[in-house]
Amino acid sequence: MTEPTTTTLAVNELFGPTFQGEGTSTGKLARFLRLYGCNLACTWCDTPQTWDRARHDPAAEQTRLTVDDILAWLRTGPSSLLVVTGGEPLLQQRALEPLFTAITAAGLATEIEVETSGTITPTPDIVAAVTRFTVSPKLAHSTMVLPRRIRPAVIRQFVASGKASWKFVVQTPDDLAEVEALATEYGLDPVWIMPEGTDSTTILDRMRLLADPVLARGWNLTSRLHILLWGNVRAR
After folding, report:
1. Where are the alpha helices (DSSP H) in 12-151?
2. Which of 29, 106, 146, 203 is the most exposed place for a label (fewest CB within 10 A)?
């Protein structure tokens, strides 16, 4: 029997089973651990409850859960893919290390996917534990200043891990030149382009505009499947 742990994480929500809606794992059966807290403040952020204290009460939006609490939740249903997201989950990676170790030891997930902005270097233990990182560097339309959203040394560490795919949130085809410059400079591969939007009409309209220029560059195009299926509702 494993020893109980008092290590805690600031959690915004636990949900699933559902489908992963974005990127390389789109359509896979998954459960989601959404952590509280972010080091960015993108204008179009679709999860402002994880960081925006002006609009969302932090007392209502975060819960301290132990590793054992999260393991108990994972035991309640299918969890072959666990997606750890935020906010920015790597703000809490020291607490994630024992969680990932325990999940692997208990066989509670065969894949662990971490969604991150690529602004915080993962520890060696986190790199070893995860199946993949979905890294989403923010473009200029996020309104974050360049040194805050693009950190070259961190990006190179993710490239070196061999476990990163690169998902860029795009509003118009004009944004693709910025993606291309980053992909060329850092050798990013594979590249996934995702339309920004929180309703099905916007998602589909932008995908249609992006499809041909994304194909021309040899990249991948991802929808936001959960938005197409259920709209902009939480915990789906």
Report:
1. 58-61, 67-74, 93-106, 124-129, 146-149
2. 146
Instruction: Report the DSSP beta bridge partners of residue 168.
Output: 193
Q: Are 225 and 27 in contact (CB under 8 A)?
A: yes
% the chain with pLDDT above 70: 97
From residue 23, give the alpha-carbon distance in Å to each of 20, 47, 63, 133, 193.
8, 17, 28, 11, 8
Cα(20)–Cα(159) distance, rounded to whole angstroms? 23
Q: Where are the beta strands (DSSP E) in 8-127?
A: 8-19, 29-35, 63-66, 81-85, 111-116
Backbone angles phi, psi at 193, to 5 degrees: -105, 130
Mean of pLDDT values over 36-60 = 97
What's the angle, vertex CA 130, arms to CA 229 and CA 160, rounded to 5?
110
Long-range CB pairs of 228-234 (<8 Å, 24+ gap) are: 228/200, 228/203, 228/204, 229/19, 229/21, 231/199, 231/200, 232/46, 232/198, 232/199, 234/13, 234/15, 234/49
Write out the two tokens for 80: 């072959």
Half-sphere exposure of 139 (CA within 13 A, CB side): 24
What is the domain partition of the chain in residue ranges?
A: 8-169
β-strands 8-19, 63-66: how paired? antiparallel
Local confidence band at 18 (pLDDT 50, 70, 90 cut-offs):
very high
pLDDT at 5: 52
Q: Does domain 8-169 have CATH number 3.90.650.10?
A: no
